[in-house]
Amino acid sequence: MVSIAWTRYRVGDVPKGVPAMFFVLSKIFWLVVQPLSLIFLLALAGGVLVARRRVRAGLIVAGVGVLLLGVSSFTTLGFVMIRPLEDRFARPAEMPQGVSTIIMLGGATVGRVSAVRGITELNDAGDRLMETLRLARLYPDARVLVSGGSGALEGEVLPEAEIAARLFIDMGIDRDRLMLEDQSRNTDENADLTRDLLGAVDGQVLLVTSAFHMPRSVGLFRKAGLSVIPWPTDYRSTGQEGIGVDIVNPVLNFVTTGVALKEWIGLLAYWATGRIDSALPGPEAPNGD
Q1: Which of helix, strand or coil describes residue 202?
Q2: Hey, which bits of 96-239 come out as E strands?
Q3: Which of 1, 147, 174, 230 has CA atoms 20 to 30 A from the CA of 102?
Q4: What are residue 207's DSSP bridge partners?
Q5: What is the pLDDT of residue 29?
Q6: Reported pTM
Q7: 98 with 176, same domain?
Q8: Which alpha helices (DSSP H) does 139-204 contain, by range?
Q9: What residues does 144 pair with on adjacent strands?
Q10: Rounded CA gap, 149 and 87, in Å?
Q11: Cβ atoms 85, 62 nearer than 8 A
Q12: Are residues 42 and 67 in contact, defined by beta-carbon separation less than 8 angstroms?
């Protein structure tokens, strides 16, 4: 197991006050409104209504839950929802020149498993790590900055930046190239703390994250005053899906619906609270935003 001390790169405590409250409220809100929770709550409410002899109302409420389960699991709804997010930004047609920094946002590892077993266990977004590794080899003089602390509400979890560093070092990336921002708990803090850590930037900066996550990420980095070249990865859709029945992999359909719903809610929440300037950030116009 690699032991890493990155004290010189840490940027201090996470922001207090309103940002911390926003983080907690967002976690609680998503716990309630995610599809699985909604289905459970609708079924529970339906059962309570039936038990109180409000049979018709109970059946309607429970039926809504069943409908939500069916649409999420046995149609292409999730892929149709996630497609506009993934299509919003494309990689440059030609490889950028003068790249000084490659930023990878966290969200690609399984924190508790990685911490306990002393490994780097990847989740569905593991392409972020693999693509960052590929770019690091293509641009051997560029710094590699991993932004990601722990998004857990409670319990000690090894920061994702440190977990990712294990893999990069094992795959031959010189540890002197690595910068770890290990305090952020969400994308808003990713942008602010990464900006503070980088300081003045000389050269172009690539931003690596999941394609569906790129609009919100770019919007936040722009708001933080850091210009980045989007480098999307971890695509979940082909970009050709239309709405229809899909019974091949109901679990994947259900998960994709949840991922897409969470991202759209995140975009709207960040826009409504002024953290991004548009509900769906897109490529910059030739003369700016």
Answers
A1: coil
A2: 99-105, 143-147, 178-181, 204-210, 229-233
A3: 1
A4: 103, 230
A5: 86
A6: 0.88
A7: yes
A8: 160-170, 187-198
A9: 102, 178
A10: 28
A11: no
A12: no
Q: Is the dihedral of CA 116, 121, 123, 125 positive or negative?
A: positive
The answer to whether residue 139 is domain-embedded is: yes
Query: How many CA atoms, within 13 angstroms, populate the side-chain half-sphere of residue 56?
Result: 0
Look at residue 101 and tell me if it is in a domain.
yes
Distance CA 74, CA 61 (A): 20
Q: Are 200 and 254 in contact (CB under 8 A)?
A: no
Task: Tally helices (H) and strands (E) across the chain.
Answer: 10, 5
Contact 194, 144 (CB under 8 A): no
Can you list the residues of the chain whose pLDDT is less than 50?
1-18, 286-289
The whole-angstrom separation of Cα 163 and Cα 166 is: 6
DSSP-assigned letter for residue 59: H
The alpha carbon torsion through 1, 139, 91, 130 (nearest 10 deg) reads: -20
200 and 104 fall within a common domain: yes
pLDDT tens profile 196-250: 999 888 999 999 999 999 999 999 999 999 999 999 999 999 999 999 999 999 9
Residue whose structure tokens are 């897109």: 282
Residue 54 tokens, joined: 């409000």
Pick from 195, 161, 188: which is nearest to 6 by CA?
A: 161
Q: Could you give the count of Cα atoms lying within 13 Å of 20 in the half-sphere of its Cβ? A: 7
Q: Rounded distance, CA 102 to CA 64, Å?
A: 45
CA 236 vs. chain centroid, Å, equals 13
Q: What's the confidence (pLDDT) of residue 263? A: 97
Distance linking the first and last C-alpha atoms of the chain:
46
User: CB burial class (10 A; 0-12, 13-18, 19+) of residue 6?
Assistant: middle
Overall number of domains in the chain: 2
String of DSSP letters for 146-159: EE-----SSS----
Tens of pLDDT along 87-102? 999 999 999 999 999 9
Residue 133 and residue 234 in one domain: yes
